[in-house]
TrEMBL record:
The gene is LOC110765753. The keyword Nucleus applies. Residues 334-344 have a biased composition (Basic residues). Residues 274-360 form the Sof1-like protein domain. It holds the Pfam family WD40. The lineage of its organism: Eukaryota, Viridiplantae, Streptophyta, Embryophyta, Tracheophyta. WD repeats lie at residues 1-18, 19-60, 198-239, 241-282. This is DDB1- and CUL4-associated factor 13-like isoform X2.
Length: 364
């Protein structure tokens, strides 16, 4: 928020390089596929390109090293999000509209506007580099195809989507982090209903990121927790929280799917294990076999009530526990009200819609 960008070495927990320059909050960061160019944008209406130093284990203290931007592009409106195209030299920014930039040009190559107020999230498709998805503050999610030169599809939900992430192993599917405390997985070919609804958060979901394996994704929420979901699971398999951690605004999976990184309101970055009980470091063959055997036993008997309770049980912070109970009570009350209204209405006058369809207002 202070305009400062830092490159961190996770192993040594120190700053490798510092990229100063933005006059306001930095709203978006994206790195090229080869990892050499960093793109940043912010509320000062500028887009900056930075050269990323080669990763080496430096012995001396380099926290004072500062880097100058390779290019600075000034535009007419503030930016809220940026993402780099896979395997090409283009990147997209979101703000008052969607702009497509090239590393070698100081003005956008293409610009899209589709009646949106502000674009808050933007993501390129990992399988089709010319397709990108955006979410806007008018509760819409839009898919653009750069080859067509115009938007391809758009639908409006009941509440705003804060972030979008494509599944890297199934690039036709994406998951949206929503203000109503749920995440919704969609098939980009069929946008009139969600494939799966992922519940458990008790407040707005602020960010989402898929694991490189495509089997899991991590979410960060306004309720001060980080959760990990299976890609097709309705409930989270893991929850992370600390007493000092405040509202979580950004989360990322590491490229080896072993770690999760979260950034929160208390100005700290936190590194979590993707599997909390996993032993780090080099394992002896006997240890490895022991771990595999334990996992196989848990997987075999996971349907038994006693085992299921132990595997699924997580200690929750008291505010989250109470909010979840209140949320369940409200949901049950709505269900009972709907059942009574249906029982006292003419047959067929009240149409039941599943939650996967109910949250979508219009598809364009």
């Amino acid at each position: 928020m202070d305009g400062d960008i830092r490159l961190w070495d996770i192993a040594s927990r120190r700053t490798v390089c510092q990229f100063p320059g933005h006059q306001g909050a930095v709203q978006g960061l994206a790195v090229s596929t080869d990892g050499r160019v960093l793109v940043s944008c912010g509320t000062d209406s500028t887009v900056r390109l930075w050269g990323v130093p080669v990763s080496t284990l430096l012995e001396e203290d380099v926290s004072s090293d500062k880097s100058a931007p390779l290019e600075t592009y000034v535009w007419k409106n503030a930016f809220r999000a940026v993402d780099h195209q896979w395997n090409f030299d283009r990147f997209a920014t979101g703000g008052a509209g969607v702009d497509i930039w090239n590393h070698n040009r100081s003005a956008p190559e293409q610009s899209f506007e589709w009646g949106t107020d502000t674009v808050v999230s933007i993501k390129f498709n990992p399988g089709q580099p010319d397709i990108l998805a955006t979410s806007a503050s008018d509760r819409s999610i839009a898919i653009y195809d750069l080859r067509m030169g115009k938007p391809a599809a758009k639908f409006i939900m009941r509440t705003r989507t804060n972030s979008i992430s494509w599944n890297p192993m199934e690039p036709i599917n994406f998951t949206a982090a929503n203000e109503d405390s749920n995440c919704y997985s969609f098939d980009s070919r069929k946008l009139n209903e969600a494939k799966c609804v992922h519940k458990d958060h008790v407040s707005a979901v602020m960010d989402i990121d898929y694991s490189p394996t495509g089997r899991e994704f991590v979410t960060g929420s306004y309720d001060r927790t980080v959760r990990i979901f299976q890609y097709n699971g309705g409930h989270s398999r893991e929850i992370y929280h600390t007493k000092r951690m405040q509202r979580v605004f950004c989360v990322k999976f590491s490229c080896d799917a072993s770690y999760v990184i979260s950034g929160s309101d208390d100005t700290n970055l936190r590194l979590w294990k993707a599997k909390a009980s996993e032993q780090l470091g080099v394992l002896l063959p006997r240890e490895q076999k022991k771990h595999e055997y334990n996992e196989a036993v848990k997987n075999r008997y996971k349907h038994l009530p006693e085992v299921k309770r132990i595997v699924r049980h997580r200690h929750l912070p008291k505010p989250v526990y109470k909010a979840a109970a209140t949320l369940r009570e409200m949901t049950e009350s709505r269900r009972k009200k709907h059942e009574k209204r249906k029982a006292h209405s003419a047959p067929g006058s009240i149409i039941e819609e599943p939650l996967r369809k109910r949250k979508i207002i219009k598809v364009e």
